């Protein structure tokens, strides 16, 4: 009898391990954490260069404003309050962490502004009858790329960090949007009007298309080492947007999320191990497992929508083994 109980206990242990293994395969080892939990909306997460802070845009105080929080979601502080006269979006830290660029219509028109990282010293960099949005600092901090309609079409422009020497980089019939600098500042990724991720030299030359035309694709963002590009996309008309990564030449596309809500606005942490993004009006962070960021062994994964403690499955498996072994021992002793 005791031997039968022991065999049954071990069989249960094996079954638990198998189920845990299935769960681990589904999550792919990636860990998803929800950093904000508001009934309104939090958007445009942007990591500070040291990885300690995340700036974001939110209206959970009743008015749209710029906020900053610790990278674990704690200590949320409002940096700039946007009144009914204006709003702002798409935040980006300067490389030294001293400045934050954003877009605002507080002057009556959508323009690019910068402020100190504590919310002080707001300075308007663009003044035009058409709008200027989506400011992105170059890695050196000397340039800011932005989108403007001043040529009669939505195109990508670049200017010095003080707002001088504005130069148009793209000249196309469709809209060119969501630009981002490569870490070495030699390339700029963007989404073209035909709905594809493209890359060009930082002076606008040598445009290359990396993805096929899709139903929805936004915000291609370079990994800190320049080897990967994260973006949000839907390759099926009936699917929501999800976060993807690919090699910087467009190969080896891997889907990181698969929630029913749209996942978008990816933002890499400075160490390349995490990606912050927005879904259901809140900010999440996905911690990537090592093989996901590899250029050779990446595989599609489906992260948990609620997040799991790293190593949680292993803890359950070991605990289950200890429990059933203890039960079996008691039966043998009897």
Descriptive report:
There is one protein chain. The chain has 334 residues and is of the alpha+beta class. The chain folds into two domains: 54 residues; 274 residues, TolB, C-terminal domain (Neuraminidase, 6 Propeller). The protein contains three helices and 24 strands. Strands 1-24-23-22 form a four-stranded antiparallel β-sheet, with no helix packed on it. Strand 6 and strand 7 form a beta hairpin. The longest helix has 26 residues.
CATH domain fold name of the largest domain: Neuraminidase
Number of domains: 2
- The general outline is globular
Structural class: alpha+beta
What's the level 1 CATH class of the largest domain? Mainly Beta
Identify low-pLDDT runs. Answer: 2-28, 294-333
Order of strands in the sheet with most strands: 1-24-23-22
Helix content: 10-25%
Distance between the termini: 10 Å
Number of strands: 24
Roughly what is the average pLDDT, rounded to an integer?
78
How would you name the CATH homologous superfamily of the largest domain?
Answer: TolB, C-terminal domain
Instruction: List SSEs in N-to-C order.
Output: HEEEEEEEEEEEEEEEEEEEEEEEEHH
At a glance:
Helix content is 16%, strand content 37%.
Task: Set down the secondary structure blueprint.
Layout lengths: L1 H26 L3 E4 L7 E6 L5 E6 L6 E6 L6 E5 L6 E6 L5 E6 L6 E6 L6 E2 L7 E6 L5 E6 L6 E6 L6 E2 L8 E5 L5 E5 L5 E5 L6 E2 L6 E7 L5 E7 L7 E6 L6 E2 L8 E5 L5 E6 L2 E6 L2 H4 L18 H22 L1
Keywords:
alpha+beta; 2 domains; 4-stranded antiparallel sheet; 334 residues; Neuraminidase
